[in-house]
Structures are given as C-alpha cells and as structure tokens.
C-alpha cells in the first residue's frame, strides 16, 4: 500500500472522528438545553402546587393534598403544551411514580396501583394512601410525632402514670420537663431525649425523614412492576436526598415530588430526573391571638410585646383575619395594629 493510500485512510478516519464528536457535542448541547427547560417547568409546577397546599378556613388551617397534586400536574401540562392532550398527559404521569404531602401529624403518598376490572383485564390507577404517622418506638414508648412540639405517646411501662389508669398521652414535650405529674418520670429516665431540646429535635427530624423515605422507596419499587407493563424500561428508585432538602418538610406542610426516567424528546438515551420538596408558606403576620381583659377581648398579632405573660391568652386558638377576631367581639391592640381598627374605650395595657 502506497503512502497516499495511508493518507486517504487517515483523512477518512479523521473526518469520521470529527463527525462523531460533532454529533455528540450537538446532542450534549441539545440535552443540556432540554434539561434547563424541564428544570424550569418542574420548579414552576411544584411551586404552583405549594401555593394552595394550605388553605385557611375560618380558624383552621387545612392541608389540601388533592388540590396541590392537581395544580402540580396542570402546571406541568401547561408548560409542556399538552393541556388538551389526555394521551400525552397519561404518558407523562407514568414518570411521576410518587408524590408525598406532609401534614402536621402524618403524611399521604400518591401512587400507582393495578386493579382488575370486571372484564378481568388489569388497569392502572393512581390514588392516595391512608395517612401514615411519624412513627418511632423504643423500649419505653411508642411515639407519634408531629411537625410541632406536640406528640402522642403510648406508655408501655407506665412511666408517666404509675396508677396504670392512662397509657396514651397527647402533649407538648416540654410538659415532661416542667409538669409536676411527670416528676417521677424525670427521676426514672433523666437521660430521656424527651427532656432535652436538641435531642428531641434530632429524633423528631430523623423519624419524619425516615418514615417518608421508607414509604417513597416502597411505592417507587411497586411502580417498577407497573412501568414494565407499560414498556418503560427505566428502574425507578428514590435517590439519596441530603438532609438539608428534607429540613423543608419538618416545620410546615409540604409537597414532595419525584419525576424520574422521562426521555428527552430528541431521541437521546438520556433521561430527565428530578426530586424536589416545596413547603407551604404561611405568613406569620396574619396570625392573631385573643387576650381576655376585664370585660372584653383584645386581638394581638403573633409576637406582639403586649401579649400578656401571665394573663388569660388564648394561644391555642389562632385567628387569621381581623374580621374573625371582630366576630368574637375583640378590639384591636393599639400597639401592633398600626393604629388601625376599633379600640376598647378603657384599654390600658
């Protein structure tokens, strides 16, 4: 073989390598742009879901998991231009294996299941689970935590009530450190995490995270069987989630979404994967508490310096509008109301 033959072969190989590299580069750029676009869609969708996750109904806060889930999907459909395409919506839904919504005293999972119809064919359905508690157990107690300092305890050894008349206690854990009726418990279990603020927070946080992660992993695995029957070869699994991400779900109701295995539209073998948590945003400046004076009530914004330290303050009954306070016959606090509202004629703090 002559020299120019080798030259021609080298040129062909170089051109082929250049073309392959160029194709790969273009594919990488296309996937990067697609990922950036899907990131925007996903973040917008979960933010839209969180906006109306918590609703105020009179004096109560209501977590509306169904509306949050619907808002999430509708936002994603609109961003991807498939609002009027049920078939594409159904395909997209298959790549959202699980959604979780946290409540104060537990959480729900939105998952896929198989059902046999009256025609004996198997059908796929999505639904909400029953509420799961934030459950923890040790040698002494069975605990059901909340997103607050309140918890329910099942006393296995009658450490809290030696008369054995009561075995279930629902209380603020601070009471165990201060209330006289639990003095014997403090003597018997001086090292209990229930008596130490930092330890209580760590156990509560770890329990909430572990419970949610276990449920998400379980239903992710169940989704794989359904996905196979839908000709989806991707293996769905809960990714490793940093604790800093989970902290958002510890203090307020939140929505947790796993979007996984979604194929990019350019024929690439790469898939889009995203896990996110969005917490509800309840503005503290709309929370009011009533204080009883001699013959009337006064409403204060939460954190008002004039809230009585030892007076009769209804801290367990928050109100979320001035009109709700007025319906109770309450007058405005002249200090935290900014000079607005009706004031009691003889109010002297």
Question: How would you describe this structure to a colleague?
Answer:
This protein is of the alpha+beta class and 349 residues long. It has 9 helices and 15 strands. The protein is globular. The chain has a domain of 49 residues. The strands form 4 sheets. Strands 5-4-3-10-11 form a 5-stranded antiparallel sheet. A 4-stranded antiparallel sheet has the order 6-7-8-9.
Q: State the shape.
A: globular
What's the number of extended β-strand segments? 15
Share in helix: 25-40%
Radius of gyration equals 28 Å
The residue ranges in which pLDDT falls below 50 over 5 or more consecutive positions are 19-23
Strand/helix succession: HEEHHEEEEEEEHHHHHEEEEEHE
- End-to-end Cα distance, whole Å, is 106 Å
In spatial order, strands of the major sheet run: 5-4-3-10-11
Question: What's the average pLDDT?
Answer: 83
Tally the helices.
9
In percent terms, what proportion of residues is strand?
A: 15-25%
């Amino acid at each position: 073989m002559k020299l120019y033959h080798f030259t021609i072969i080298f040129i062909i190989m170089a051109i082929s390598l250049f073309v392959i590299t160029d194709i790969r580069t273009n594919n990488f750029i296309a996937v990067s742009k697609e990922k950036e676009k899907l990131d925007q869609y996903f973040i917008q969708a979960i933010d839209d879901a969180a906006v109306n996750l918590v609703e105020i109904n009179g004096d109560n806060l209501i977590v509306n998991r169904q509306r949050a889930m619907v808002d999430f999907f509708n936002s994603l459909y609109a961003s991807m231009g498939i609002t009027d395409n049920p078939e594409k919506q159904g395909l997209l839904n298959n790549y959202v294996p699980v959604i979780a919504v946290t409540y104060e005293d537990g959480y729900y999972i939105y998952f896929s299941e198989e059902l046999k119809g009256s025609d004996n064919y198997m059908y796929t359905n999505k639904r909400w689970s029953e509420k799961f508690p934030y459950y923890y157990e040790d040698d002494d107690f069975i605990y059901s935590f909340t997103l607050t300092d309140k918890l329910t305890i099942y006393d296995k050894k009658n450490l809290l009530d030696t008369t054995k008349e009561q075995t279930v206690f629902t209380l603020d854990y601070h009471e165990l450190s201060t209330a006289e009726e639990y003095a014997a418990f403090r003597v018997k279990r001086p090292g209990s995490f229930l008596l130490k603020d930092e330890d209580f927070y760590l156990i509560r946080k770890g329990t909430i995270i572990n419970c949610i992660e276990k449920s998400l992993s379980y239903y992710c695995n169940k989704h794989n069987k359904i996905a196979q029957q839908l000709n989806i070869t991707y293996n769905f699994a809960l990714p490793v989630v940093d604790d800093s991400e989970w902290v958002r779900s510890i203090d307020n109701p939140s929505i947790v979404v796993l979007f996984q295995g979604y194929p990019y539209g350019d024929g690439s073998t790469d898939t889009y994967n995203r896990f996110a948590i969005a917490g509800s945003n309840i503005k503290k400046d709309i929370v009011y508490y009533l204080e009883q004076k001699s013959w009337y009530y006064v409403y204060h914004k939460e954190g008002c310096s004039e809230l009585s330290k030892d007076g009769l303050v209804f801290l367990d009954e928050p109100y979320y509008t001035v009109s709700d306070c007025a319906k109770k016959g309450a007058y405005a606090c002249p200090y935290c109301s900014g000079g607005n509202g009706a004031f009691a004629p003889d109010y002297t703090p």
